[in-house]
Amino acid sequence: MATASLVVAKVLAFLYGLQVFSYLSIRAIWEGYVSKRPSKRFWRLLEEERTRLWNLALPLRSLPNFTHAFLRLPNSSCHNIHFITNTPPSAAPKASGKPLLVLLHGWPDNPHMYTRSLTHLPTSFSSSTTIIAPSLPGFGASDSVPSYSVNNVMNAIAEFVLLARETYQPSRVILCGHDWGGLVAGRLLGEDRAGDDGVGWLVDAGVLGNTAIPAHANSNVADYTANFSNIFRAWTQTPSSYRLLRSAGSAIRPLAAQVARSGYVFLFNLPRPLVGFFIDLGGCWFLRVICVIALGQEAEPQSPGDEDAEEIQAHYLAGILGPGVSVLDTCTPDGDGYPEVVQKRIKAHPNNPHTETIRYYREGLVSGSWTLKSAALLDSPLRPKARQPTVVDEADERIEGRLKVPVEFVWGEGDPALDERICLRGVERYLGKGSGGAGGCVRRVEKGGHWFLSREEGSKRWAEVVVEMVREAVGEES
Question: Are 69 and 330 in contact (CB under 8 A)?
């Protein structure tokens, strides 16, 4: 019976994904994205921006004190992690004792998505904090992994944080994440099992933005499903009751809304040639639409050949598309070049890196069970004898998947992908709170949307919360 139910579920998911594919493809054609492709000037600007962003020898344009760097993970399935930083590994001895801020991006993003927020950090804060923003495995200049299972991705990120601790010798580590980066950070913070086989000692505080904490979201889904089932069962006993039928509809509405918002996830689980065709359609129309959603009307061309909008889109997409073939021979100031695995990936798909990155949606990172198998983590001499306590109610302490360290949650309102009733309702009980009072709160960004980090108000708000959490974490130490 269970096997039959699983087959039915997979068939329904496939049919829904096919429906979303058909609807969005027809919409792209109807709205002119296919017939009105970007101009030659746009493509030239895009290549120039990709070269500028991903040339490993160049500092970041908006953050001239930031450079590219790599950390090599000898025990991981992802051997090389690329990141941007204000302190390359060669200068790590000077960073000893400073707090370490780790920033994880989401899909289809890249480490450069944080540059706007980083410009809002106080100069004194930036100079006294080591900041690293890695490319997740398979993104940007980081190695691919054989499969994007929960074990491969989570262990790679955990080992990266460990190696960063060993390299920079920080006083505290604050882990931040948005979208997929937030989900990865949330799993690390909530499933770290701080005992003998855990990694609860890796991170001291966190900031999450517009993401889902799996245990929390699953709990809300279970609540709504149980409520709907009870009401619907009562309605079957009295089918003439319009009130019960209306209540059943209200009970299922949050789940239906989230399924509708997650249509792209079902699409990304279609056969890969269909997904690749969809993303390439009309000159990467889907990614250009995401750009408009993320940045607002300033990124939407008001007329054919709108030069201002083209420049904005070219800069945004240059980060999303990642490095091109033209920069593969460049090296970081520390002398590190593009890893061989990354070079092969870029040469195979120079303009569609998402052939690789959509695998995050396909290979069990959300639902899989994480088993820590890293000798580097289990045998690390950095494992402390004790950790800073979090302040929780006794009932909250028993919540499965609750985050183990002080965490703030920043939410951009008007998210087109995540429904608040699933991802935000009751989330405070899952957020750790420090003994100094930090953490455990939701900070809203009005009309910020999913990509609030790309907008002025949202990036400022994020920077404020990060500064507050870092200072609180450091203050708890002294």
Answer: no
Using a 10 angstrom Cβ sphere, with 0-12 exposed, 13-18 middle and 19 or more buried, the burial of residue 224 is buried
Whole-number Å distance between alpha carbons of 344 and 395: 51
Higher-confidence residue of 280 and 98: namely: 98
Instruction: Give the DSSP letter of residue 72.
Output: E
Cis peptide before 333 (omega within 30 of 0): no
Nearest C-alpha neighbor of 89 from the set 73, 112, 71, 76: 71
Length of the chain as a residue count: 478
Tokens of 126: 């930036």
- Taking the C-alpha atoms of 318, 446, 416 and 319 in order, what is their torsion angle to the nearest 10 degrees? 10
Phi, psi of 83 (to 5 degrees): -155, 160
pLDDT score of 383 = 52
Question: C-alpha angle with apex 39: 38 to 42, nearest 5 degrees?
Answer: 80
- Cβ atoms of 225 and 459 within 8 Å: the answer is no
In contact, 396 and 429? CB cutoff 8 Å: yes
| Both tokens assigned to 107 | 């899909």
> Using CA atoms, how far apart are residues 177 and 207, in angstroms rounded to an integer?
7
> Per DSSP, which regions of 60-189 are E strands?
67-72, 80-85, 100-104, 130-134, 173-178
Least confident of 20-34, 129-143, 200-214, 291-305: 291-305
Structure tokens at 392: 């929780």
Kindly report whether the global pTM for this prediction surpasses the value 0.70: yes
Identity at 345, one-letter amino acid code:
R
Q: Which residues face 233 on adjacent strands?
A: none
